[in-house]
Design a protein that fits this description.
With 306 residues, the protein is mainly alpha-helical. It has one domain. The radius of gyration is 19 Å and the shape is globular. The protein starts with a helix and ends in a 6-residue tail after the last helix. Helix content is 75%, strand content 0%. The mean pLDDT is 84.
C-alpha cells in the first residue's frame, strides 16, 4: 500500500482525499440527529483512533516520540486546533450567523493558507497558481451561493457578529493546521501525523465534553444498526483513511497548492448530494462546478520548464 501511494502524484492524493471528505455529509447528517456536536465529533475521533493506533504502534514505534518541540506545537495546532476546536467554532458560527455566512468565510481559507505558508514555510507559489486559484475561489463561491444573494451580511451585529467571529476562528485554525501539518511532514510519515492528530483531538474533545457536562457516551445508541455503520464509516473512511491520504499528498506538494485542490471537497459534496439526496443544481451551479473542476485540474498539473 505504501509503495502504491508513493507512486501517485501528491495532487491526485489531495483530490482523492477531498472526494472522500465529500462523502462525510451523507453519514454525518443522520448522526447529528442522534448526538450533540461535541459528542459526535468525539465519537468519530475515538472510532478513528481504534483503526489507526494498532497500525502506527506496530510500524512506527520509534518515530512516534522522536518529535522536536516545534513539531509538538504543530501537533497541537492540527490536532487540538484543526480537529477539535475548529469543528466546534464552525458549529457555533452556524448557530449564531447561519450556514450561509459560515460557508462564505470558510471559503477564504486558501487565501489564509497562501499567506501563512509563505511566512512560516517560506513557500513560493508557482507562476500558474494565481489566475486559476482565483477562478477556483470564485467558482466555489458561486457553487455555494448560486443566487449571489449576500443580504445576510446586513443583519444586526449582535449574535450575528459572534457567528462571524467564530467562523473566522474556524477558518484560521483549519488554515494553520494545513501549514502545521506540512511542517510536521518534513520529518515524519503521514500515518504518524494522523495518529497524533487523532490522539490530541480525542483528548481535547473529551476534556471539552467534561466541561460541558457531556462526559457520557450513550453506548445503547452507538451499538445500533442505524448508528454503528455510519459511525464506523465516519471514523475510518471519511476520517483517518482520508486524512492519511491527504497527508501523503501534502508531504509531496506545497501547502499553498494543496489548499486550492481541497476546493474539490465542496464540489464532491454537491455531486454526491445530487446523486443520493435528490438535490437540484441550477444552470449557474453546473457552470461553476465545471469551472471549479477545470481550474483545480490546471492547478494540479505541474508547470513544465520551457
Amino acid at each position: 500500500m505504501k509503495t502504491l501511494i508513493s507512486k501517485i502524484p501528491g495532487s491526485l492524493l489531495i483530490a482523492f482525499a477531498a472526494i472522500l471528505w465529500g462523502t462525510d455529509s451523507l453519514v454525518r447528517d443522520p448522526l447529528s440527529k442522534v448526538f450533540s456536536p461535541v459528542i459526535l465529533v468525539w465519537l468519530e475521533h475515538l472510532t478513528g483512533l481504534l483503526f489507526i493506533a494498532p497500525w502506527v504502534l506496530k510500524r512506527h514505534p520509534k518515530d512516534l516520540f522522536s518529535l522536536k518541540w516545534k513539531e509538538w506545537i504543530a501537533v497541537i495546532f492540527f490536532g487540538v486546533g484543526g480537529s477539535a476546536l475548529a469543528g466546534i467554532f464552525y458549529t457555533a458560527s452556524i448557530q449564531f450567523a447561519g450556514p450561509a455566512v459560515s460557508i462564505l468565510i470558510i471559503k477564504l481559507q486558501p487565501l489564509f493558507v497562501l499567506g501563512t505558508a509563505s511566512i512560516v514555510l517560506k513557500e513560493k507559489a508557482k507562476n500558474n497558481l494565481f489566475p486559476w486559484a482565483g477562478i477556483a475561489l470564485v467558482s466555489a463561491f458561486v457553487l455555494s451561493f448560486p443566487e449571489l444573494d449576500f443580504s445576510f451580511i446586513s443583519k444586526g451585529f449582535t449574535s450575528y457578529a459572534r457567528g462571524v467571529f467564530f467562523a473566522f476562528l474556524a477558518m484560521a485554525l483549519w488554515g494553520f493546521s494545513t501549514v502545521a501539518g506540512k511542517y510536521f511532514l518534513y520529518r515524519h510519515s503521514p500515518s504518524v501525523g494522523v495518529f497524533w492528530r487523532w490522539v490530541t483531538a480525542s483528548l481535547s474533545l473529551g476534556f471539552i465534553a467534561y466541561l460541558n457536562q457531556e462526559f457520557y457516551i450513550p453506548l445503547d445508541l452507538v451499538f445500533t444498526r442505524k448508528v454503528l455503520p455510519y459511525l464506523l464509516y465516519l471514523g475510518s473512511v471519511a476520517g483517518v483513511v482520508s486524512m492519511g491520504i491527504y497527508y501523503a499528498g501534502l508531504k509531496k506538494i506545497p501547502a499553498s497548492v494543496a489548499t486550492f485542490i481541497e476546493l474539490i471537497y465542496p464540489l464532491a459534496g454537491v455531486i454526491l448530494n445530487v446523486a443520493f439526496l435528490d438535490s437540484q443544481l441550477s444552470g449557474i451551479q453546473v457552470l461553476a462546478a465545471v469551472l471549479l473542476f477545470v481550474s483545480i485540474l490546471l492547478i494540479m498539473i505541474p508547470k513544465t520548464k520551457s
